[in-house]
Amino acid sequence: MPSPCDAQYAPAGDVGTALMVIDSRLRTVYGGKDGADPEQRRLIDQFTASLGRKEADDLVDGTCTLIYMFTQWLRMAYEKHDRDVIEYVVPGFVASMRMMPKSVRPEVVPTMTGLVVAAATGLSPNLWRKQYGDWTGDEMNALEATALLLAEHINRLTDDRDFATRVITQALAGADQD
């Protein structure tokens, strides 16, 4: 019997904007000549602050869709080597989140870990989270950090700083053709 949190029941949200935000943050993390400048960061922050309630909800759903897609890619990659994605991704993910106390409050780390585990087991992160009530303000930075950390993990595995963004862009292009 399918779960009400099954990914097939989840709204995709605004995946394009969510990807733009994560890609911008990745470029900031990587720095160098391709790194986002302070002006770009200010524009992204200004853009997200200007969103209305529906647009903000769509961005949250889009970020959850990215988390799901990144986690599914990681699951398939680890399964090719007879490894479990939860065993190989979650401990490093939790350690990274705990090293970010200014951006990620310690009390939201278990929730973000739950999102990743939900996605790894085929559940929708946003539907899984919504069973516990409305999103909190403290969870918003952590949600972005979750998507960022998963994308960066993929990029490290593939030794390609644009791989995670490219795989989502290709999936979106394929969905548009269907």
Tell me what the structure shows.
The chain has one domain (11-177). It is mostly helical. The longest helix is centred in the middle third of the chain and has 27 residues, at 53-79. It contains 8 helices and no strands.
Provide the domain count.
1
Order of helices and strands: HHHHHHHH
What general form does the structure show? Answer: globular
Radius of gyration: 16 Å
Note the total helix count: 8
Instruction: Indicate the structural class.
Output: mainly alpha
Please give the share of residues in helix.
55-70%
List low-pLDDT spans. Answer: none
Mean pLDDT: 90
Q: Please state roughly what percent of the residues sit in beta strands, choosing from under 5%, 5-15%, 15-25%, 25-35%, 35-45% or over 45%.
A: under 5%
Number of strands: 0
Characterize the main sheet.
Answer: none
State the end-to-end CA separation. 28 Å
